[in-house]
Design goal:
By secondary structure, this protein is mostly beta strands. Helix content is 11%, strand content 35%.
Length: 159
């Protein structure tokens, strides 16, 4: 199972029209599991040659929240209540990486998920545990999840 998830137009992590963002493409690979391939470019570095930790935290957060979306077009809206990040090894720039998110427990309003960033050898470079909450109705109702702002965009590389 490998099915592409929807992207937003202007999200920092997944926004297809955000020229300053990361433009990650997430795929469902199993129920409650998502993956994205990524390479950190120079504009997102911290110390020379390595990724900035705040950028890594953003990606880990996105991967965790996407575990409840599903490629079936689900419009379930969750927000992050807490994110505990562990930076295990420096994340190099311009190197292929894999981002993985996994749902660990879904109690409806309260959701637990994990996420990690691995190098090509499968070593975990950074990981996170997330506590997610169903978005309050008043917030969920204000979000622009119309088909023009939230949809599955075709990949340019055929993936």
């Amino acid at each position: 199972m490998r099915q592409k998830q929807a992207n937003a137009r202007h999200c920092f992590v997944c926004g297809v029209d955000n020229q300053f963002g990361l433009q990650l493409k997430f795929y469902d690979t199993a129920p409650g599991r998502v993956e994205a391939n990524w390479m950190v470019s120079e504009q997102f570095q911290g110390f020379p040659g390595i990724a900035h930790g705040g950028i890594l935290a953003s990606v880990l957060d996105e991967a965790a929240t996407r575990t409840v979306l599903g490629a079936n077009g689900s419009r379930r809206i969750v927000v992050t209540a807490s994110l505990e990040v562990r930076y295990r090894k420096p994340v190099p720039l311009n190197t292929p990486l894999k981002v993985i998110g996994e749902l660990t427990e879904d109690k409806g309003e309260i959701i637990h998920a994990t996420s990690r960033i691995e190098n090509e050898q499968g070593q975990v470079l950074a990981n996170a545990r997330a506590l997610l909450m169903e978005a309050p109705t008043e917030l969920a109702g204000k979000l622009e999840l119309d088909p023009e702002n939230w949809k599955v965009y075709p990949d340019g590389d055929g993936a």
